[in-house]
Amino acid sequence: MSEGVPHAAHHPAPPLAVEHLAKSYRTGGRILSVVGDLTFALLRGEIVAIVGPSGCGKTTLLNAVCGLTPADSGRILWNGVPLDRRGRTPGGIGYMLQKDLLLPWRTALDNVKLGTELRGMPRGRADERARALLDQLGLHGFDAAYPATLSGGMRQRVALARTLINDPDVLLFDEPFAALDFQTKLLIEADTVRLARDGARSALLITHDIEEAVSIADRVLVLSGRPTAVKASYTIDLDCAPDDMIGARESAGFSDYVRQIWADLDIPRSTFDHAGRITSRAAARS
Question: Which of 20, 58, 61, 180 could connect to 185 by a Cys-Cys bridge, CB 3.0–4.6 Å?
Answer without folding.
Answer: 180
